[in-house]
Amino acid sequence: MKKLLACLLALVIFALPALAEPRSYLDYTDDVLEDGSLIYYFMELSLKLPADWRGKVFAMAENSGVGFYQRASYDAFQADGLDGGGFLFRLGCSVNHSFDQLPSFRYLGFSEESALNYYLELPSDYRAYGNDAARAEYDAMFAQIDYVVENASFYADQAQAEPATEPQAQDDSAAEGVTLEQARYHFEHNALPRYFYDDPANVIDVLSNNGVYRLWKAFADENGIAYPYTAADCREVLFDADDGTAILLLTLPWPEATPLCFRIYMVYNASTGAAGYYTVEYNNLLGDAAFLCGWSAEREHTNYGDAPVLSGAVTGEEPELLDEARQVAGLAGVSTALTRAGAGGPVDPEPQDLALIECPQLGFTTMADPAYTWKYEEGTGVYIFAEAAGSIPYVIVYRTGDVIAEPLEYIREQYTPHMKQQYGDDLAAVTEYETYETGGKALPAGLYVYRLQGHLVSMLRLYEVTDNGTAVYTAKYLDDDGAATLGILDSAVRCFKDE
C-alpha cells in the first residue's frame, strides 16, 4: 500500500516539537573516547557525555528527536507499566523557532548548510524514580547537562552562536526565521532526494498519484511559510522505458534564486535497482537557461554543465520534455526508449464507479468504492472501513445540524484541547491546518497522532460548513499507512450532499 502520510510527515516535520525531524539528520552512531567520555555522532554535530554516565544512560530515537535517559529510572518505571521515566534531555532540530514554545530547552546552534536549528529539550517535570539511589544518580546526571551543551560540536564552521535572526516584517516570504528560498532548497535538495533513495518505488508511486504540490503545501503550512504558489504551478509527468524503468518528472514553480529547481527527475528500475535523482536548476546568470545536475544516494552533487536542457520556462505540457527525459535516462544508464505514461495527480472517480451511501438518520448522502464496507452507528455517523469491518483503518462521515461558524477556531480552542486531555503523553503530534485539500475542497482540519497498543494511530478530522449544518469527516489509520483511507476520505468529501 502507498504510504502517503509517511512521505507527508517526512517533509513537514519541522513545524512542531512533537513531530520528528527528517530521520537522516538525527541518525547516529556512538563510541567511547580515550578519556572514557561517551560520544554520539549525528549528521551535522556530535554530543559528548560525561565519562561517569557510562552504563547509566542510553539513547532512543523518538518522534520528536533522540531522547537520552537514565537507565535505572527508565527501567523501574517500565516495570510499573509507565513510559518516560529517567528522561534527561532530547536532541531535536527545527527549521524554525518552534522550540521556543517548549517549557525548557538549551539552544545548540544553527546550521547554514541545512538551515536547521539544533537544541536540547529538557524535562518539564521530575523524571527520577522514587527511591533514594535512583534519585541521587538522576540528580547528579542532570546537574551535568551544561557539560553536554558546552561539548556539543558541529563538524563544519556552519553553526551560529545565536538562533537564526527573526524575519523582517516587510518580507512576506519569510516566517519563523526561514525564508521561502531556504524552505525550497531544503525541500528540493535535501528532503526529496533522501526519501527518494530510501524508498524510490514508493516515492514515485505516491508523487505520481497524489502530486508534489500537496507535499509542498503541507511542508509550507506546517512551518508557517508564506508562499505564492498554487496547484497549477506544479505538475507531474510519468515516463516508462522498455526496460521497466520509471522516470517521474516534477515541474515546479519558478525558482526565486540559484540553485532552486525548475524540474526534478526521479529515475528507478525495480529489476536492477538503478536509481537517480536529477535537478534542472536555475542560475541567475543564465536567465531562462538552466543547469542539469544530480544528487547521488551518498549526497554527492554533480553538475552536468555541458548537457543541454530546455528553457526553465517549459511546462509539463511540451512534448520536448520527452527528449529531456531521454537525456536524463542516458545519464542514469537506463533505456532511453521512453513513452509518456501520463500525468500524475489524483484522478476523480466517475460517479458510476462509486456506490451511493445514504444516511437518512443525519440527512446526507455520500459515495465510496463498492469494494469497501460501511455501516451507520447512532451518535457517530457512517463508518467506511478500509479493511476489516469494525476496526481501524476507517473513515467516519457525520453531519450535525449545528453550524460551526469558525471551524479552525473550534479545532484550536476545543477539539485539540480535548485530544490533549484524552491522550495525555500518548499524544505524539498535533497539526492544525487552516486548509487541508481533499475531494476538490480546501477544509480546516486537525491531524492527531497518538500511541495505542504499540501502534501510532493517525486521526485526521475535517470540518465543512454545509447548507444544513456542519459535515465532520474523520479518517483514522495505523503506522502512517493511510493511502487507502485517505482515498476513501477524498471520495466521501467530494461526493457529500445534504439531503
Notes on the protein architecture:
This protein is an alpha+beta fold. The protein has three domains: about 5-160, no CATH class; about 175-345, no CATH class; about 350-499, Protein Transport Mog1p, Chain A (3-Layer(aba) Sandwich), CATH 3.40.1000. It has eleven helices and 29 strands. The strands form six sheets. It has a seven-stranded antiparallel beta sheet, sandwiched between helices. A hairpin with a 2-residue loop joins strand 26 (about 440-450) and strand 27 (about 455-465). The longest helix is centred in the middle third of the chain and has 19 residues, at about 180-200. About 45% of the residues are buried.
Short descriptors:
alpha+beta; 499 residues; 35% strand; 7-stranded antiparallel β-sheet; Protein Transport Mog1p, Chain A
